[in-house]
Amino acid sequence: MMLAEMMTSDHLELLKNQEPRIPHIFPEGINLYWSSLNVTGPETKSTNFLEKFRNNGSKRRVKEILHNVSGMAESGKLLAIMGSSGAGKTTLLNVLTSRNLTNLDVQGSILIDGKRANRWKIREMSAFVQQHDMFVGTMTAREHLQFMARLRMGSEYYSEEERESRVDQVLTQMGLQKCADTVIGIPNQLKGLSCGEKKRLSFASEILTCPKILFCDEPTSGLDAFMAGHVVQALRNLADYGMTVIITIHQPSSQVYSLFHNVCLMACGRVIYLGPGDQAVPLFEKCGFPCPSYYNPADHLIRTLAVIDSDRATSMKTISKIRQGFLSTDLGQSVLAIGNANKLRAASFATSSDTSEKTKTFFNQDYNASFFTQFKVLFWRSWLTVIRDPNLLSVRLLQIIITALITGLVFFQTPITPATIISINGIMFNHIRNMNFMLQFPNVPVITAELPIVFRENANGVYRTSAYFLAKNIAELPQYIILPILYNTIVYWFSGLFPNFWNFCFASLVTILITNVAISISYAVATIFANTDVAMTVLPIFVVPIMAFGGFFITFDAIPSYFTWLSSLSYFKYGYEALAINEWESVTVIHECLNSTVTAFALNGCPKNGYEVLESIDFSAYHKWFNISILFVMFIGIRIIAFVALLIRSYMNA
């Protein structure tokens, strides 16, 4: 027997709104129950590694966040969970969606139409709009929905025409037709949609596949009263169409409050009231707390249940009195029945769950789109970002051209003489250094800024981490081939390096590999630390010492034995040596050094040909292609490290 059948018809009738139902285009929603939820967690969070280490061996103090919380959200109803800060509303929403529960101990049951559901089942049947909107700002609203439709509405179930039709339908339903082809925008960089339009776009992307339940965390946060009304009205419309909608909200206006079918008032981690919004104020009045005339009822309810630190005892008495008054009503008895019924039926609910649902995890969850489709769609989005983001392509292109021209003019047509050997070596080392620092450091904040979007979409089961990583890397690869070639073309011919086409091609290959090794390191640092400030602090700690052992500032035979391992890790060394071999192996004679009276400028005398120059800086001509192989292995190997770090973070976030 299901829970809905176990409750009396009177109880169910009290929880139903008698307004006429609008003909819906969504599948009928479901009844979501939560029974006897108890959540405890640490009183304080460890803010750094040292504090976590100190607390590792000691027993940490815990506090109760939710206490014996039970309730239900009905199909075709908008339920608003309300309460002051610390009341437990966000924790309740997190438990219902099985998100953000790290370090929390959760007891109790969540049931869908009377059957116990694990986190994967809930995510399969629901959508979650989080408080902060996250988008790839270079896409338009329509393109974003097309992106989501292709991934969430798999080609096995929907045709391209059906997906496009659904996108147009959702744009119309959310009132986004006029801004459908406007870019979403990037703060302080690219003007785009308003805050209200972005919030409605968040709803639109989540309802594409017609979920049975829609969760929203503070949907009106940061919006003015006018925009907040539009956003909540959109949610009310979804509920009227048949969806089960659950939101948390802090201080709704009276207009917004009137849009709620049901409200769940919380205080001190307990449910104080759960029922129709228009019956909450009469209950408070009956308990001796009437709402003043012309006063926002939502403000009155939340203010009455707020815990005032200076008069905590009185606040607790008020909360207890209202809670007892609610539990004595039919509505209160129905909430108690949900908790008691689940305790009696917990075993049968647990055994009725599918085995596949029990064993489903992050690594074997189902996706609506194939791996190839995910890759193709993610490649499309990443490519749009590359060509549209003003800071990614145009600024980098300008930076490369200006730097290359200045470098080329400084070393313009440098002749090969004993006095210019060190200058020519400097050209080649600057080649390596400039391509590293111009692209490596600016790339870190670009990656870290996109990670929260990736983690959220990955946690929602939109696509695989591997599909994203592969698509992004391949989409960005052309710019990390074209930009190095452009830089090398200007510097190589301006500075007068050995005038041979094949030597130029080899120098371009080295420049491309060095650039991609540098980008691999930025990927690794960004995914390992996932924080711009930390990553940008750690990156120079690794790169600068590696550069010092690159062979230009100190010869390899002069490096202390305990630092030789750093020399082996120096990609600057492999790139510099490859360029040096490419240049000097083609120089058969240095004419001025054939004159025995000439002054020796080199460290080991005056080299008579390019091979002697290589010997003077501890390079071997036989290492030319070995260096290329090492750079390629570094390029691939460090990318794999970055992928593993991203996979681990995605798993922890999910």
TrEMBL record:
Boundaries of every ABC transporter domain copy: 44-293
Superkingdom field: Eukaryota
Source taxonomy: Eukaryota, Metazoa, Ecdysozoa, Nematoda, Chromadorea
SUPFAM superfamilies: P-loop containing nucleoside triphosphate hydrolases
GO molecular function ontology, one term from the record: ABC-type transporter activity
Entries under PROSITE patterns matching the protein: ABC_TRANSPORTER_2 (PS50893)
One Pfam family hit: ABC2_membrane
CDD domains: ABCG_EPDR (cd03213)
Compartments where found: Membrane
One GO cellular component term: membrane
Keywords, in A-Z order: ATP-binding, Membrane, Nucleotide-binding, Transmembrane, Transmembrane helix, Transport
Transmembrane segments: 397-428, 477-495, 501-526, 538-563, 625-648
Protein name: ABC transporter domain-containing protein
Topological relation to the membrane, as annotated: Multi-pass membrane protein
Organism the protein comes from: Caenorhabditis briggsae
Family: Belongs to the ABC transporter superfamily. ABCG family. Eye pigment precursor importer (TC 3.A.1.204) subfamily.
